[in-house]
Amino acid sequence: MHITQLNRECLLHLFSFLDKNSRKNLAKTCHKLLEVFQDPLLWSLLNFHSPVELKKDNFLLGSALKHLSICWYSERVKVCNIEDWMKNSFQKDYCKRHENTVSDFLLDICNRCPNLLSLTLSGCGHVTDDCILQLLKKCPNLKSLKLENCVQITDHTLEAVTLHGASLQTLHVDFCRNVTQAGLERVREKCPSVMLRAERSANMIPDSKPEKKLMLEKASRKLVQL
């Protein structure tokens, strides 16, 4: 029996075991398999390991998407997570190439995937509070929001959770250095049912203007001299 002789349900099941690239390559072989590739039911779960993957055409976005993960683990994450005023020209140029990639993709998710249940972001240094706010508004069924090492996330995201995260059950903001203890306490107070995790976040040094950091460094040196 040829694979194309299988019914649609069987083909969808077979496709579900393949990664995005394999699905795309198989879809190129015939029109019937292309139709299976384009079936929204196949795309309820998406995992990305690099912002570059977000620009490929080997997946489909739609209302069937329930679980999304964008986790970027590499040395390049460290470059994006450095404060802008500390970056050299090479680092700034490197970050400029993809600074809107994840945010633009998430805004697309807001418009096309209203049934999203879980979102995991890790190492996405350019994601902003406004982006998460829009996502909370447009995806009212979101139950799990995990933001690890997303350095631009601040207490504004925590406030957005208290206002628009009615369905939220899990919130992780680990290693988000611009989240404060006051913001975390506000979430615990207003959303007691949310399982909140914020490893090291409120204990890390937050971003600040160069002038302020220079003053802190001078003050530190004086204390050492004393």
From TrEMBL:
Q: Kindly state one GO CC term assigned in the UniProt record.
A: SCF ubiquitin ligase complex
Q: One Pfam family, please name it.
A: F-box-like
Name the SUPFAM superfamilies for this protein: F-box domain, RNI-like
Name a biological process GO annotation.
SCF-dependent proteasomal ubiquitin-dependent protein catabolic process
Among InterPro entries, the record links this protein to:
F-box-like_dom_sf (IPR036047), F-box_dom (IPR001810), Leu-rich_rpt_Cys-con_subtyp (IPR006553), LRR_dom_sf (IPR032675)
| Ranges for domain F-box | 9-46
Q: Keywords, A to Z?
A: Leucine-rich repeat, Ubl conjugation pathway
Which first-to-last residue range defines the signal peptide?
A: none
Q: Which CDD domains does the annotation name?
A: F-box_FBXL22
Q: What is this protein called?
A: FXL22 protein
- The protein's organism comes out as Peucedramus taeniatus (Olive warbler)
